[in-house]
Design brief:
By secondary structure, the chain is mainly alpha-helical. It folds into two domains: about 55 residues, Arc Repressor Mutant, subunit A (Orthogonal Bundle), CATH 1.10.10.60; about 130 residues, Tetracycline Repressor, domain 2 (Orthogonal Bundle). It starts with 13 loop residues before the first helix and ends in a 10-residue tail after the last helix. This is TetR/AcrR family transcriptional regulator. It comes from Streptomyces synnematoformans. InterPro entries: DNA-bd_HTH_TetR-type_CS, Homeodomain-like_sf, HTH_TetR, Tet_transcr_reg_TetR-rel_C_sf, TetR_C. Keywords: DNA-binding, Transcription, Transcription regulation.
Length: about 210
């Protein structure tokens, strides 16, 4: 007669647990997401969470790294690498943000922008600021490259053009969090793209033709 073996507890899927933690931080922010919230969302006890990820801040760091591998975390770098000009890349970034920020399979908006606005823990504030600054630096470098290559006029202000694009992205993320739908954000993106086109021709972003 075969001896019935006691089954070992099924270990949780670390990647699946990390995705749930990512969504919790993305939706509610760092401070508002407690360890109790995380264990509930992940379906594991606190000892298992600490054993797998360390403390809450370490889990948040892992969630940010996981976000950087998602479509929402990579679309800016992809556009900068694949489009032939800064204006084409920025236009694509704005259009893809309208889609990504309102997608139904994850919390709305951009995690980095959302957490950055709500965070008060100094380490988290600094981390989010560094990531935002890195994105702006990459946008600025793309404009500088086009100015150096003669694609954009010599008088183009790279920081201004990159800052404009970054500000629109932040606004779109906030509006998505507030319930704006994809159609509205796509219209916002097109208006902003028109401003970028004016800048590419040597005009001022937001200038009117009165």
């Amino acid at each position: 007669m075969a001896t019935k073996q006691r089954g070992r507890p099924r270990s949780f899927d670390r990647d699946e647990a990390l995705e749930k933690a990512l969504h919790a931080f993305w939706q509610y922010g760092y401070e508002a997401t407690s360890v109790a919230d995380l264990t509930r969302a992940l379906g594991i006890g606190a000892p298992s969470l600490y054993a797998a990820f360390g403390d809450k801040e370490a889990l948040f760091d892992a969630a940010v790294e996981a976000y950087a591998r998602t479509d929402n975390g990579t679309f800016i770098d992809r556009a900068l690498a694949e489009e032939p000009t800064a204006v084409a890349a920025f236009t694509r970034i704005l259009r893809e943000a309208a889609v990504g920020y309102t997608a139904p399979d994850h919390p709305r908006g951009c995690m980095i922008l959302s957490v950055g606005v709500s965070a008060t823990t100094p380490e988290v504030v600094d981390k989010m600021r560094e990531l935002r600054s890195l994105n702006l630096a990459n946008l600025t470098a793309r404009v500088r490259a086009d100015v150096a290559a003669g694609v954009l006029p010599a008088q183009t202000d790279p920081e201004k053009l990159a800052g404009y694009t970054g500000a629109v992205l932040q606004g779109m993320s906030t509006q998505a969090r507030d319930g704006a739908d994809r159609d509205l954000l796509e219209r916002v993106a097109e208006i902003a793209a028109a401003g970028l086109a004016v800048a590419a021709q040597g005009g001022e972003v937001g200038a009117s033709g009165a």
